[in-house]
Amino acid sequence: MDNSEELKRLGTRIKELRNTKGLSQAKLGLLILKDQQSIHKVEAGEFNPTYLYLLALSKGLEISVKELLDFE
To answer: Which domains does the chain have, with CATH numbers?
Structure first.
């Protein structure tokens, strides 16, 4: 599997978690001080988030980074 596929898988995981929490991209962005467009790019697999970005996402979603990255 290439890197772009891995980023898409991560984005799908983030989107699933966000939807489970009942959050829009804009609302999640407000919670973590990121704009809606950057959330969209991460979920679409168009942006490779840094560790600090993943940490912010996990806090906004009220889960651990381990849970965020727990996908097959």
So the answer is: 3-66 (1.10.260.40)
C-alpha 34: how far from its chain's center?
Answer: 11
Taking residue 42's Cβ as centre, other Cβ atoms within 10 Å add up to 22
Contact between residue 29 and residue 39 where contact means Cβ atoms under 8 Å apart:
yes
Per-residue model confidence as pLDDT tens digits over 3-26: 899 999 999 999 999 999 999 999
Burial pattern 11-32, b for ≥16 Cβ within 10 A else e, equals: bebbbebbeeeebebeebbebb
pTM, two decimals, is: 0.92
